[in-house]
Amino acid sequence: MSEKLRTEQVTKRYNDVAALQPTTLSMRDGEFLTLLGPSGSGKTTLLSLIAGLTEPTGGDIWIDGRRVTDEPSAKRGLGMVFQNYALFPHLSIYENIAFPLRMRRMGAAEIDAAVRRVLDLIHLPHVAERLPRELSGGQQQRIALARCIVYEPSIILMDEPLGALDKNLREHMQTEIKRLHVELGITILYVTHDQEEALSMSDRICLMNNARVEQIGTPAELYFKPASVFAAGFLGESNIAPAKVLSTGTETLLGSADGSTIKVAADAGHRTDAEVNWMVRPERLKLIRDGEAHENIRRGQLLDAVFVGGFTKINVRLDDGTTLLAKELTSGQPLPERGQSVTLGWSAADAIVLPPGA
Description:
With 358 residues, this protein is an alpha+beta fold. It is 23% helix and 36% strand. The chain contains 8 helices and 20 strands. 33% of the residues are buried. α2 (93-103) runs parallel beside α4 (137-149), α3 crosses α4 (137-149) and α4 (137-149) runs parallel beside α5 (167-184).
C-alpha cells in the first residue's frame, strides 16, 4: 500500500513554547489513522500543520509524494470536517454538498450526479432540499462528511467531529464513518481525545502527550502493549505498580517491595536489578475459585464489587496494601461479600514491563 502522507521532523513553536516537538509520521493510502491525546498534547497543532492552516517552524510535509510544506491549504487536495459542521445555514443540503464542486467549475449534470450519489451513500437522499437547521446534529455531521467525500480529496482530516453529539448518537456516527471509510477506501486522519472512539475506529493510533508522539501502533498494540505509564493509563483502566527486575529469559521475573515475585511477559529491554513498573489490564485479572491455577496469585480483601451491566468491577486490597482492579463478565454467580478474603490470578503473558516514571 502506497504512502499517502509523511511528516519529517515537523515542529511548531510560539516564541519559547513548543506546541509540537519534532514529529515524523507516515500514513498509508486508505488508512484510518487517529491522533489521540489529552488537551494540549499537540494533536490539533499537527493536524493544522498538515492542513496548511498553520505554518511550521521547521520540518517538511509530503502528500502523495509531493512536498507541500510551503503550499497553501487550498492546493493540498485535502478535505476537512469540523466539530461545528461548518455548513452554510442559508443554503439547502443539496447546495451545501454541491458547493465545492461549483468552486471547481464542474458541469451541472456532473454535479447533480455526484450530489445524489453521496446523499445515497449516507442514506439521506430525502433531505436534499432542507436547510441545515432542519436536521439533527448527527444528520448535519453526515452532510459535512458528504461535502468532503463528493470532491474526492486525497485525505479527509477530521477534528473532533463527534464532540458535540450525545453518547448514543456519537456511537452511531462512529459506525457510520467507519462504514464509509471501508466502503470507499478513503484515507482519514482523525483527531480525538476520546479513547473508546480511537480504539473502535482506527487502523492505527498515534498517541500524543506533551507536544510529542508517545507511541504509534494498532489499537490492540497500544492497549495491551503500551510503551509507557502514560500510554497504559490513558488507553483505559490499568493496574500499575513498581518492581525490580530479578531475571530475564523466556519470562521476566520481577520482585515487589514486599518480597513477592511477579512473572511477566519476556522483556529484553531492561537489565537485571533495573527499577521498572509492571502493568496488567483489569479484564485479565481473575477472581480465583477453588481448584484454579494461575502463574501469578495474590491474596487480599474485597473492597467492593460494582455492577456495570455486562461486567462487574472488583476492587481488591492486597496484603501489601496495593489495590488491584479486576473486571469480570457478569455471570449471575454470587460474588464474595465486602471485607471477605479473596484471591486474584493472572498469566505472565498478560502482564508487561513498563519503564519507570510517566
